[in-house]
Amino acid sequence: LVLQSANDMSGVVVDEVSEVQRIDTSTIEPPPNAVRGIDKFFLQGVAKIGTQNRLIMMLNLGEILNIDISRSRQSIVETSTTEETADETIEAIEEEQVVVFNLGEEEFGLDISAVKEILKVGEVTAVPNVPGYIKGIRGIRGTILPIIDLRRLVGLQSLDQYHDRLVSGMKEGHVQWIKALNESVYQGVPFTKALD
Predict the structure, then answer these.
(1) I need a labelling partner for 62 at 20 to 30 A (CA). Which of 91, 114, 185, 194 fits?
(2) Which tens digits make up the pLDDT trace of 160-190?
């Protein structure tokens, strides 16, 4: 995701962008104090969507990137047309569009007004002596952006580490399957592993 603040742009790496969701602001509750984190308040709120208890964790971009992304609800009102009635203006304020994305098995969201564009990560140039959650920098349309690994920032394994661990597990499982097959063929022992 390429995020736009008042004066800066930053790139944020997420696992997958799943949708843009219209969320009724009355469904967003403050996060419980116990899950806000020790050093920062990354979590702005939790949106409850539908009747299936789907939860989307709304991130506080200002805390995450230490930037000012204040696009107040007042600006929504100012850009509305003069033909809107007061009721229509209030309705626009009570709903916000959110870019929903995944980090691991969980869903997170950011206000769409902060998202300038959605791109594949591409090649990132590593920068020495930066915090572990900074993947590096990348040029996008002539602008050099810091690229932040949001997984690492919120305390999850990086996607690269996750994939490496997943592939290692798959290789180990495959090796065990081959050993069991060999044992079955050469020693006449029944083969009990899955065939699919």
Answers:
(1) 91
(2) 776 677 777 777 778 888 888 888 888 888 8
Buried b (16+ CB within 10 A) or exposed e, 61-99: bebbbebebeeeeeeeeeeeeeeeeeeeeeeeeeebebb
List residues bridging with 22 in a β-sheet: 97
d(CA 68, CA 46): 21
pLDDT the model gives residue 67: 40
Q: Are 116 and 4 in contact (CB under 8 A)?
A: yes
Q: What percent of the chain has pLDDT over 90?
A: 1
At residue 78, φ and ψ (nearest 5 deg) are: -65, -30
How far is C-alpha 131 from the geometric centre of its chain's CA atoms? 19
What's the rounded Cα separation, in Å, for the pair 163 and 58? 25
E-strand ranges in 85-141 read: 95-103, 106-111, 115-117, 134-140
Helix boundaries (H) for the chain: 61-65, 73-79, 86-93, 150-153, 159-187
79 contact partners, CB below 8 Å, separation of at least 6: none
